[in-house]
Amino acid sequence: MKPFAYDRTHAGWSEWMTKQGEPAFRANQMMDWLYKKRVHSFHDMTNLSRGLRERLSEEFQLEPLETLTVQQSDDGTVKFLFRLHDGHAIETVIMRHNYGNSVCVTTQVGCRIGCTFCASTLGGLKRDLTTGEVVAQVMAAQKYLDREGGRVHSVVIMGIGEPFENYEATVGFMRVINDPRGLGIGQRHITVSTSGIVPSIYKFADEKLQAVLAISLHAPNQEVRKKLMPVSRRYPLEELLEACQYYSDQTGRRITYEYALIGGKNDQPEHAHELGQLLAGSGALVNLIPVNYVPERNYIRTPRNQVFRFQKIVESYKVKATIRREHGSDIDAACGQLRAKHMDAEKRSS
């Protein structure tokens, strides 16, 4: 399989061009064609020589994704199902906000973390994505938005998979989309979400990037978290919070804690009090998420009035808590649902 053009950073293109005997400025031209002009073929790169364009076509693949399905919600949310070169399917989502368009990207085909409320883990982990396969998701979203004169303002790495179990590709992706010669998406407009892979949080802190780190917490104590998130057996809550403090100390950035409210599991007043006590004084933000219904999981949603009550209790401890706005409730909203449907359909037809 040929590597993807989107796998390479500007420095990577400079190195490749030098090896081809080309001047260094060709790397700038490549970035311009890929990310500003957003061409679909190397042969469209008209300020490169024909010979160079042929070498690029021989050595690289430009389009790693094939669009299988596009769903558009009444609220403007757009969900893509893409096929990769090896036949696996992944999801990407465009979400509309009053501050701009956000794209949620996938970093793995499937997931092995095993969170009990998540559709992404159904079927387990198949493989990691390359940097270019993650970049290509943002490019596909941007090309979709080009038709309406829109642009990608921010990126959340919260799709299928655990980004910090595909660490190098994830950080490489962040550097590519942040490059001003490319899409120029600011680091503070990039959010990476992890289930709590403690060694990678320390490593990420030492990168000293200014991205938003979001922790999938979903429980106020170790006992509840172990039941919902098996990863907590390997990396206990206490160790996770120590790693988060290190990240804040190294970067000066506030941590966001994601908390999916699951009826009868982690949404009672005592859970809210415990969560407030746990995070009091940390300067953290809690993002409360009414859980999406996943047929295979059979969890129930927390009633809306109970969500507001939970928020109020948490905030009584001087911890800022927000309620995530729902996107795409009339389509396959939960991460992994569209892929799961596709996998079921393929099984039935085989």
UniProtKB/TrEMBL annotation:
Biological process, per Gene Ontology: methylation
Highest taxon in the source lineage: Bacteria
Spans traversing the lipid bilayer: none
EC number assigned by the record: 2.1.1.192
Pfam families assigned to the protein according to its UniProt record, in alphabetical order: Radical_SAM, RlmN_N
Residues engaged in binding S-adenosyl-L-methionine: G161, E162, S193, S216, L217, H218, N292
Catalysed transformations (reactions): adenosine(2503) in 23S rRNA + 2 reduced [2Fe-2S]-[ferredoxin] + 2 S-adenosyl-L-methionine = 2-methyladenosine(2503) in 23S rRNA + 5'-deoxyadenosine + L-methionine + 2 oxidized [2Fe-2S]-[ferredoxin] + S-adenosyl-L-homocysteine; adenosine(37) in tRNA + 2 reduced [2Fe-2S]-[ferredoxin] + 2 S-adenosyl-L-methionine = 2-methyladenosine(37) in tRNA + 5'-deoxyadenosine + L-methionine + 2 oxidized [2Fe-2S]-[ferredoxin] + S-adenosyl-L-homocysteine
The record's free-text note on cofactor binding: Binds 1 [4Fe-4S] cluster. The cluster is coordinated with 3 cysteines and an exchangeable S-adenosyl-L-methionine.
GO MF entries: methyltransferase activity
Radical SAM core domain segment(s): 97-330
Top EC class, one word: transferase
Predominant location category: cytoplasm
Keyword annotations of the record: 4Fe-4S, Cytoplasm, Disulfide bond, Iron, Iron-sulfur, Metal-binding, Methyltransferase, rRNA processing, S-adenosyl-L-methionine, Transferase, tRNA processing
Active site: residue positions: E91, C335
Cofactors (names): [4Fe-4S] cluster
Entry-linked CDD domains: Radical_SAM (cd01335)
Annotated [4Fe-4S] cluster binding sites: C111, C115, C118
Family: Belongs to the radical SAM superfamily. RlmN family.
Function: Specifically methylates position 2 of adenine 2503 in 23S rRNA and position 2 of adenine 37 in tRNAs.
Further remarks about this protein from its record: Reaction proceeds by a ping-pong mechanism involving intermediate methylation of a conserved cysteine residue.
Protein name in the entry: Probable dual-specificity RNA methyltransferase RlmN
Native species: Salinithrix halophila
